[in-house]
C-alpha cells in the first residue's frame, strides 16, 4: 500500500510528483467501470439486507417494495451536492470547504448506500467535518442554529461513520486550486490575454460544474482544471499545455495525444452531466426511498428496536461476565485480581470500559 | 453490520493494547503491538465524546497530515480506527525524544552528534515544507527518537497547509521559547520560516544543553530574543514596527553568537545565524539548510545508531505529550503555546545558573562513553 522512502544511501529513484504520494492518488481514483461496478455491488447487497430484514418482520412484505436503482441513488446524492453549495453560500464558507465537503459526500457513497444513510444527514455531517479539516471551524451550535430543523445530534451522530468511510483520509486535492495555478502561469505565457479574470471566472464555473460529475473520482485535479480552462478559452488552454510539455518525450508523463483525449472526455462529461438534477425526478426517488429505507436505521422502528435490544443484550452479558470475574477475584482474596494472564490472540476486550 | 463498521473492526483487530503509558485530559497513550508481526506501536486513544463540537481540531490535523506524509524523519501513522466514542491513532513506537536526551546529564554530545540530529530534523522538515505543510510546534519534546537513533518529527496537532498569500493565519502557535519574533509581534501572514526559527533555537539548545531563549511571558520572550541577538533595526527587518502587536521592548546591542557558543565551529554558527535571521524572508529554508557547508564539513554526522541514547523511560514523555493540548470547549486551534504547564522548569535557580556556566564552557573534546 505504501511506498517506503529510500534510504539516503540508496540510488536516486526517479522523482515522483507529490500528488502521487497522496491518499487521493493512492486510494480514491477509479475507472468509470470500477465506479459502476462498485455502486452496483453496494446497491445489490443493501437491497438483499433490507429485503431480509423486511421478510423477518413480516413475510412477503418485501415483494411490494420497489428498491432504488444505482442511478436513482446517484441522482439523490447529486441533489445533495447542490445543497452543500447552497449551505456554503449561506455561511459564506471558502471554496475549499465546499469542494472538500462535496468530495466527502461522494466518497461516502462509494462505501455506503442511500438506502442505509440518507444523504440529507450525511451531507450536513460531511460539510461540518470539512469546515474542520480545512481549518475553517465553526461551533456546532452556530452551524445547526442556521440550518432549519437540524439538531446538533443530527450532525454529530454520523461524524464517526463519515470519518470512517473516508478512511480518515481528510486531505483532498482540488481542481480549483490547479486552475488558479494555471491562471498564475498564464502571466508568463506570451500572447496571452492580459486580463485573465473573465477566463478565470468562466473556467471556475466549469470546475464547479465538474463537482456534479464523477470527474474527480477518475481524473487528476490538473486534468479537470485543464478541461475547464479549455471549455472557457480553448486557445489559451492549448498554449498553456504547450508551454508545460517537456521538450523531450518522457515516459512518466502522458503523451500530448492521450492528454488531449482525456481533456476532451472530461469536457464532454462536464457538459453532459455537470448540472443539477431535476427536482421533480428527485422528489419521486425520495418518496420511494421512504418505503425502501433500511428499517434498522430508522430510529423507533421495530427493526431498529430489535437491533438495539440485541446489542444491549450483548453488552449486558459482557458486564455480567466482568462483574462475576471481579467478585471471583474478591473471593480469591486479592481485590486487585490475580496476576495478568496474557490474553490469547483475538480474545482481547477492545472496549476498554474502564477508562472511557 | 455495515461494511464500513466491519472494516473498522478488522483494523481494530490488528492491534493489541498492552499497557497504559500515559493519560492526559484529551488522550490516553498505550504501548501496544501488531498481532501479526509483534511490532511495537504506540496507540493514542483520543476521547471524542466529551468535545461538544465532535472530533477536535488537533486530532483532525494530526490525522489529516500524518495520513499523507511518509518519510523516515516523520513519525508514521500506521492506522486509525474508532472504538465506541474514541478515536485511536496507531503510531510507530519511539523510545525517547530530544528533550529527554538533552536533559540527560550523563550523556555527552559530540559536534557530530548534534550535526546528525540537525540533519534528520531538516530532512523531515524539508519534506513537510515540500508538501506545503507548516508544523508550527517544533521543540525538542516533539522530535522523537527511535531505538535505532532515527529522529522523527511528531505531533502535528497544530500543523496546517500553507495559506494562499493574503489569507490570515493565527499567530498563537509554537511553544513560546521556540516562537519566532514575527509571531510574537502578531503577524498573521507567515510561512515556513516560522519552523526554521524553531529549528534554530533547538540547534542552539543542543549545543548549550539548556533552552536558548527561555522567555517567561510573551513580552519577556521578545526581550529574551533581543537580549541574545540584539534589537532589530529597520534595516535588519524592514517593516517589523508595523506588525499588529509591535511594541518596543528596549534597545539591546548585537553580540556575536561566538561569545556564547564558544566551542561551535564556524560552519555551525553560520547555519545557526541563518536560522535566526529576523527578516523571515531572508531566513534560510530547510532545503537550503541541507545544502549548507556545515553538513558536508568534517566531522561528518554521527550514524543514527551511534548517537547518545537515553536511559530513562518513556512514561514521562508520553504523559507530557498528551497533556492539555486542547481547550475542551473551543473549536479554534489549541493554544498550546500559551500554556504555562508546558514550560519546562529546571529544579532550582541555582542549578539553572550552574547549567548555564557549564553550557558556556561546552567542551567537545571530552571522550564519550558510547564511542
TrEMBL record, chain A:
Cyclin-like domain: which residues? Answer: 82-164
Family matches, as CDD domains: CYCLIN_CCNH_rpt1 (cd20524), CYCLIN_CCNH_rpt2 (cd20525)
What GO biological process term is on the record, naming one? regulation of transcription by RNA polymerase II
A GO term, aspect molecular function: cyclin-dependent protein serine/threonine kinase regulator activity
Q: Which UniProt keywords apply?
A: Cyclin
Extent of Basic and acidic residues compositional bias: 310-324
UniProt-annotated stretches for the region Disordered: 310-356
Write down the SMART domains for this protein, in alphabetical order: CYCLIN
- Which Gene3D superfamilies is this protein grouped with? Cyclin-like (1.10.472.10)
The lineage's top-level taxon is Eukaryota
What family, per the record? Belongs to the cyclin family.
Q: What is this protein called?
A: Cyclin-like domain-containing protein
Name the species this protein comes from.
Answer: Tricholomella constricta
From TrEMBL, chain B:
State whether keyword Metal-binding applies: no
Lineage of origin: Eukaryota, Fungi, Dikarya, Basidiomycota, Agaricomycotina
Q: Which InterPro entries match?
A: CDK (IPR050108), CDK7 (IPR037770), Kinase-like_dom_sf (IPR011009), Prot_kinase_dom (IPR000719), Protein_kinase_ATP_BS (IPR017441), Ser/Thr_kinase_AS (IPR008271)
Which residues are ATP-binding? 21-29, 44-45
Where is the segment annotated Disordered? 327-353
Give its E.C. classification number.
Answer: 2.7.11.23
Transcription regulation as UniProt keyword: no
GO MF term set? ATP binding; cyclin-dependent protein serine/threonine kinase activity; RNA polymerase II CTD heptapeptide repeat kinase activity
- State what protein this is by name: [RNA-polymerase]-subunit kinase
From the UniProt record, give one GO term of the biological process aspect.
positive regulation of transcription elongation by RNA polymerase II
Q: Which residues form the active site?
A: 137
Polar residues bias (residue ranges): 327-340
* Any one cellular-component term (Gene Ontology): transcription factor TFIIK complex
What family does the entry list?
A: Belongs to the protein kinase superfamily. CMGC Ser/Thr protein kinase family. CDC2/CDKX subfamily.
Residues of the Protein kinase domain: 15-295
Q: How would you classify this enzyme at the top EC level?
A: transferase
What highest taxon heads this organism's lineage? Eukaryota
Q: Which UniProt keywords apply?
A: ATP-binding, Kinase, Nucleotide-binding, Phosphoprotein, Serine/threonine-protein kinase, Transferase
Amino acid at each position: 500500500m505504501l511506498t517506503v522512502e529510500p534510504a539516503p544511501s540508496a540510488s536516486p529513484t526517479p522523482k515522483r510528483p507529490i500528488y502521487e504520494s497522496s491518499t487521493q492518488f493512492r486510494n480514491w481514483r477509479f475507472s468509470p467501470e470500477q465506479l459502476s461496478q462498485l455502486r452496483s455491488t453496494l446497491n445489490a447487497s443493501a437491497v438483499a439486507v433490507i429485503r431480509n430484514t423486511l421478510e423477518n418482520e413480516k413475510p412477503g412484505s418485501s415483494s411490494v417494495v420497489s428498491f432504488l436503482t444505482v442511478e436513482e441513488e446517484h441522482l439523490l446524492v447529486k441533489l445533495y451536492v447542490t445543497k452543500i453549495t447552497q449551505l456554503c453560500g449561506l455561511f459564506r464558507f471558502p471554496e475549499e470547504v465546499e469542494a472538500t465537503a462535496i468530495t466527502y459526500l461522494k466518497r461516502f457513497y462509494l462505501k455506503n448506500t442511500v438506502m442505509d444513510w440518507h444523504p440529507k444527514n450525511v451531507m450536513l455531517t460531511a460539510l461540518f467535518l470539512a469546515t474542520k479539516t480545512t481549518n475553517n471551524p465553526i461551533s456546532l451550535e452556530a452551524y445547526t442554529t442556521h440550518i432549519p430543523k437540524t439538531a446538533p445530534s443530527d450532525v454529530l451522530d454520523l461524524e464517526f461513520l463519515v470519518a470512517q468511510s473516508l478512511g480518515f483520509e481528510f486531505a483532498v486535492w482540488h481542481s480549483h486550486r490547479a486552475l488558479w495555478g494555471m491562471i498564475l502561469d498564464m502571466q508568463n505565457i506570451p500572447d496571452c490575454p492580459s486580463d485573465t479574470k473573465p477566463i478565470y471566472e468562466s473556467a471556475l464555473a466549469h470546475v464547479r460544474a465538474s463537482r456534479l460529475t464523477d470527474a474527480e473520482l477518475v481524473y487528476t485535479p490538473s486534468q479537470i482544471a485543464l478541461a475547464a480552462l479549455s471549455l472557457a478559452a480553448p486557445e489559451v488552454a492549448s498554449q498553456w499545455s504547450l508551454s508545460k510539455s517537456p521538450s523531450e518525450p518522457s515516459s512518466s508523463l502522458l503523451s500530448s495525444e492521450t492528454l488531449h483525449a482525456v481533456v476532451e472526455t472530461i469536457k464532454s462529461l462536464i457538459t453532459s452531466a455537470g448540472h443539477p438534477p431535476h427536482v421533480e425526478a428527485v422528489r419521486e426517488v425520495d418518496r420511494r426511498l421512504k418505503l425502501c429505507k433500511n428499517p434498522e436505521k430508522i430510529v423507533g422502528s421495530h427493526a431498529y428496536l430489535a437491533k438495539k435490544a440485541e446489542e444491549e443484550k450483548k453488552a449486558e452479558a459482557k458486564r455480567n461476565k466482568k462483574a462475576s470475574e471481579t467478585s471471583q477475584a474478591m473471593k480469591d482474596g486479592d481485590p486487585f485480581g490475580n496476576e495478568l494472564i496474557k490474553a490469547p490472540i483475538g480474545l482481547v476486550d477492545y472496549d476498554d470500559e474502564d477508562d472511557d | 453490520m455495515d461494511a464500513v463498521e466491519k472494516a473498522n473492526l478488522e483494523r481494530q483487530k490488528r492491534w493489541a493494547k498492552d499497557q497504559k503509558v500515559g493519560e492526559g485530559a484529551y488522550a490516553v497513550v498505550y504501548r501496544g503491538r501488531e498481532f501479526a508481526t509483534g511490532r511495537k506501536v504506540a496507540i493514542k486513544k483520543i476521547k471524542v465524546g466529551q468535545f461538544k463540537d465532535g472530533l477536535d481540531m488537533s486530532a483532525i490535523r494530526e490525522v489529516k497530515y500524518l495520513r499523507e506524509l511518509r518519510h523516515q524523519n516523520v513519525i508514521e501513522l500506521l492506522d486509525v480506527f474508532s472504538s465506541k466514542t474514541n478515536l485511536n491513532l496507531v503510531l510507530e513506537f519511539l523510545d525517547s525524544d530530544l528533550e529527554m536526551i538533552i536533559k540527560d546529564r550523563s550523556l555527552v554530545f559530540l559536534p557530530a552528534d548534534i550535526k546528525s540530529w540537525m540533519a534528520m530534523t531538516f530532512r523531515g522538515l524539508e519534506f513537510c515544507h515540500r508538501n506545503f505543510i507548516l508544523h508550527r510546534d517544533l521543540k525538542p519534546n516533539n522530535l522523537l527518537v527511535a531505538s535505532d537513533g532515527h529522529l522523527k518529527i511528531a505531533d502535528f496537532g497544530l500543523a496546517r497547509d500553507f495559506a494562499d498569500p493574503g489569507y490570515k493565519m493565527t499567530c498563537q502557535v509554537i511553544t513560546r521559547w521556540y516562537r519566532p519574533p514575527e509571531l510574537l509581534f502578531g503577524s498573521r501572514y507567515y510561512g515556513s520560516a516560522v519552523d526554521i526559527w524553531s529549528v534554530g533555537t533547538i540547534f542552539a539548545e543542543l549545543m548549550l544543553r539548556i533552552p536558548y531563549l527561555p522567555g517567561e511571558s510573551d513580552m519577556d520572550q521578545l526581550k529574551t530574543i533581543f537580549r541574545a541577538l540584539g534589537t532589530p533595526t529597520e534595516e535588519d527587518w524592514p517593516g517589523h514596527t508595523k506588525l499588529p502587536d509591535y511594541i518596543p521592548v528596549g534597545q539591546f546591542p548585537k553580540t556575536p553568537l561566538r561569545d556564547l557558543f564558544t566551542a561551535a565551529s564556524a560552519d555551525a554558527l553560520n547555519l545557526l545565524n541563518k536560522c535566526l535571521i529576523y527578516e523571515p524572508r531572508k531566513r534560510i529554508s530547510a532545503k537550503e539548510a541541507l545544502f549548507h557547508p556545515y553538513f558536508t564539513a568534517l566531522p561528518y554526522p554521527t550514524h543514527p545508531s551511534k548517537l547518545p541514547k537515553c536511559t530513562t523511560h518513556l512514561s514521562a514523555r508520553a504523559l507530557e505529550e498528551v497533556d492539555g493540548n486542547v481547550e475542551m470547549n473551543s473549536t479554534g486551534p489549541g493554544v498550546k503555546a500559551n500554556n504555562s504547564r508546558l514550560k519546562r522548569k529546571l529544579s532550582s535557580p541555582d542549578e539553572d545558573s550552574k547549567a548555564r556556566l557549564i553550557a558556556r564552557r561546552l567542551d567537545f573534546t571530552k571522550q564519550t562513553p558510547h564511542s
